[in-house]
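Contributing new records

If you add data, match the layout below exactly. Sequence lines come first and carry their own label; structure lines follow with theirs. Keep one chain per record. Anything else will be rejected by the validation script.
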Amino acid sequence: MDIEDIEVFVGIDVGKTHHWATALTKGGKKVFDKALPGDEARLRALYEKLAAHGHLLVVVDQPATIGALAVAVARDMGITVGYLPGLSMRRIADLTPGSAKTDAKDAAVIAGAARTMPHTLRAISTSDEDAAALSMLTGFDLDLARQVNQTANRIRGLYTQIHPALETILGPRPGHDAVLEVIAAWPTPTALRKAGRARIDAKLKKHGARRHAAWAGKIVSALGRQTVTVTGTEAAGTVLPHLARQLIALHSQRADVAARVETLVRAHPHARGPDHPCRVSGSRPRPSSWPRPWARPPGTGAQPASHIRPGPGHTPLRLIDPRRARLPHRQQETRTRHVPVRLRLPDRSRLPYLLPAQTGPGQAPWARPCSPWPTAASSPCTP
């Protein structure tokens, strides 16, 4: 629908408990300016009442979260919907008389901007709805990740208290559901001894542990390092199964959220196709036509970059071949990692002072060749 067809401009300042709506006609006459509760019945009644004056344009300041219901009701009734970005709204509000910030003033600013400055409005498209859904899902996944971390730390803390040797085997593997199933079935050292190696091995194998035999052997070996029963072991046997089941459920919830996020991302209109060179999923082989910074220039007898020596007065240049580079092992996420730098050298003809000259008998090994760009300040060439 074109902006010239709009007869009534409705600006809604949305809130948690109630909204404030202001409606202006094309000539600037105010036909509605009241607060209304945020429920579907009142919103439908307002839209039906204002529709008697002509085609409506409903504009909100927040299309998601607290303003989602007002947008959904308007769309269900076939009404054109838009939203005014917060920065534009604040700049327009600074030009209106009065310094007080009220819901009535904000609604009037929104309606006035829709009537006189329609270029400031933004359409509510499917991508905006997908962005709101992705924001909600990723926020929930972040909460789940924190709960996973807290629950795993509690499991490790309990095993550190009742059986430190067993914690060294079970503690580093709280992300594997097979280990959590073992903890849920036999949480205490006494229960693990009664279960035996064969049943532990079968439980790990049933739930997808590839190294089930080795893990079972390590668990049985750790049980033999401690014979005494520490105070609190019985209470830990009550808590640990609940923590293990809770952690398994959290893993399942995160997997469901990840699947939903992937579905939304793939369905997004701006998503990269499977043939895009910068796609996120999958691997893409490196084309042979891509330049390799460490390769020798074709047709030249240049030495490898790591053996290039400078002329007199120049700082030695040491390059690292990335094919032979070794990054330090990752120890902590907060530590700085040193990454080798790749440098591409220009052609030999453009580096007469860096590359060694072809020397003859009695000539200095690092004599500089004659510069192809002689200047008055340049030193004479070595014969």
